Amino acid sequence: MTTALDIISDSLSEARVYAPGETVGAADSALCLRLLNRMMDSWSNETLACFATLTQSGVLVPGSAAYNVGPGSTFQATRPINIADGQGAAYLQDNLGNNYPVDVVPQDVWNQIGNRTTTSNIPDTLFYDPQFPVAVLNLFPVPTIAYTLYWVATLQLQEFPNLTTVVSLPAGYEDALVHNLTIRLKPHFKGAQIDPVIIELASQTKAAVKRTNIKAVESSYDGVIVGKASGTYNIYRDGRGSGS
Predict the structure, then answer these.
(1) At what angle do helices 26-43 and 173-185 cross, to 10 degrees?
(2) Residue 85, CB-side half-sphere exposure with 13 Å CA sphere
(3) C-beta separation of 80 from 56 below 8 A
(4) What pLDDT, on a 0 to 100 scale, did the predictor assign at position 60?
């Protein structure tokens, strides 16, 4: 458990702007809070810096193929930075709890769909258009039943609301925030000194967070188009198989 002021105080101490335990001035703490939140906002664009994904959902409207996502929108959910793609990255659920896979495709694939006015009880293709401040989920075919759509979203890292609110961070984040904020604040404080060790720690701790956030992706292939294994040609035996 920590506060923004704890992180800021440690960073200013690392930069030798303030002595350990010295009270940080109001103007300096306000500046550093802005720098800290700007850094959190920047890290949100780095997928591996985001420690969790969230399954979001919304109830479809029969006859509607496009759904806004964001405050005051059709789907009242936080606007995702991006959503998982590929087969099974999203799904529909009917009123009996049965799930139907929905493929999340990029725009170039979406653009190749010839007639997007086709209707179906169960849409099977989704294109996420990350417009700002409200994003758009596009479905094909156009749904005819109010099933529930689920998708896996990567959300923006939350900013610190103020200096004193206590927050809980996943393992390793506080260390990474302190060292990286130390580097960020240097141009704003005359006389700030950044030890090369801090620069190395900033890189190492952020890398450690990203390694933890890596999610293994299991590859798959269509067995129909992959030939069965066979022996290789052996030049010594003038035939297939191993040997010397």
Answers:
(1) 120
(2) 11
(3) yes
(4) 96
Q: Which two tokens stand for residue 125?
A: 């293709």
Where do we find the tokens 């293709």? 125
Which string of DSSP letters, residue by residue, matches 17-30?
SS-TTPPPPHHHHH
| SS3 label, residue 40 | helix
CA distance 220 to 234: 30
**DSSP alpha helices (H): ranges in 124-240?**
173-185, 196-213
**Does position 239 have pLDDT exceeding 70, yes or no?**
no
Give the DSSP per-residue string, 51-68.
--EEEEEEE--TT--EEE
Question: Could you tell me which of 159, 169, 158, 174 has the C-alpha nearest to residue 11?
Answer: 174
**Structure-block tokens of residue 170:** 């996943």
Q: Which amino acid is at 47?
A: T
pTM: 0.69
Distance CA 244, CA 237 (A): 8
pLDDT averaged over every residue in the chain:
89
102: nearest Cα among 115, 114, 120: 120
